[in-house]
């Protein structure tokens, strides 16, 4: 307590002067503590009242209360002033000139394959799927044998394989499809399983619709109750969302893949009239991938009891889907690294189509 604080008018004018001298909120807070805090100068004066005679106490107490109110009000008023100054300074500092010309767009473009993977993942994520991954160089066992392709089975010839040097005596291949990651997932996760597997795949194949390196997305669902109807509903929801075509028809055509039973090719409705490809209910069909119920031998090979569990799998070609969705006529151009092509067919970063339109996204 300052010695001369007994003189209330002096105390008051000193306190008001310190309030006026505070140049920012932190300094003002300090002034408030010094005046009105637990050990503040006014509080200390209040504590001395008890020692006074009743009349003097009443008079000095009332005077102190008036000063207290006046100081508190002046602190509040100063606080408002300082806040307004701070706001003015901030607005000045962060001034935005909305009349400025937009900055030139970043040079880079997202490749249509990456864009399509992002879209596929976003749709399946909204349906409760997670993403799984596996290696590009795969053991023959994962790529074929565990998937119910016995050695020398003719179905192996359906996938023109690039063979790799053996590792630890084990035959290796560049994976011909994403299906070996089904095996890896079932070996490491307990059902219920619900994953998609986008990734690179390799086949000795090259023309307008076939490339030696391409991408597939695999889907795998394993639990105790899933059946073919769920498979069809899942693909229908996904394909309608992906192609932004709410009435897109879907057809299952019986087909053979050793790792599913029953198996089917998945076709979507289209029209090819006048050489122009349109998706929708036009009576013509286009193949988009394969699917089926996971074969009991595959479940067994992965340590899952087929008496208790069942499920479905599907696999689709990602570039084929991108070609259909974005009207890209030749699959080979995806991998030619031609910057003009990328400028034309590429995407700006974060340019994800509006999934809310599809009714699938939450
Ligand atoms: C398979 O690869 C199966 N693993 C799919 C599957 C998964 C069936 C799960 C059942 C259950 P397929 O060989 O048909 O199936 O290839 C699937 C898709 O990959 C094709 O429909 C096509 O879109 C794409 N594809 C196949 N070969 C090529 C290639 N050389 N270039 C580009 N895309 C290709």
Ions, cofactors and other bound molecules: adenosine-5'-[phenylalaninyl-phosphate]
Tally of distinct domains: 2
Which range best describes the helical content: under 10%, 10-25%, 25-40%, 40-55%, 55-70% or over 70%? 25-40%
Number of helices: 11
Briefly note the CATH topology name of the largest domain.
Answer: BirA Bifunctional Protein, domain 2
CATH-assigned homologous superfamily of the largest domain: Bira Bifunctional Protein, Domain 2
Contiguous runs where pLDDT drops below 50 for at least 5 residues:
356-362
Span between N and C termini?
65 Å
Write up this protein.
- By secondary structure, this protein is of the alpha+beta class.
- The protein folds into two domains: 2-93; 112-358, BirA Bifunctional Protein, domain 2, CATH 3.30.930.10.
- Helix content is 38%, strand content 21%.
- It has eleven helices and eleven strands.
- The strands form two sheets. Strands 1, 5, 6, 7, 8, 9, 10 and 11 form an eight-stranded mixed sheet that branches. A three-stranded antiparallel sheet has the order 2-4-3.
- Strand 3 (163-167) and strand 4 (170-174) form a beta hairpin.
- Helix 1 runs parallel beside helix 4, helix 2 packs antiparallel against helix 4 and helix 5 (112-126) packs across helix 10.
- The longest helix has 40 residues, at 54-93.
- The chain is elongated, with a radius of gyration of 37 Å.
- The two termini are 65 Å apart.
- Residues 356-362 have low confidence and may be disordered.
- It binds adenosine-5'-[phenylalaninyl-phosphate].
- Adenosine-5'-[phenylalaninyl-phosphate] binds at residues 159, 177, 179, 203, 205, 210-211, 214, 216, 218, 257, 260, 263, 287, 289-292, 313-317, 319-320, 331.
- Adenosine-5'-[phenylalaninyl-phosphate] (FA5) is lined by residues 159, 177, 179, 203, 205, 210-211, 214, 216, 218, 257, 260, 263, 287, 289-292, 313-317, 319-320, 331.
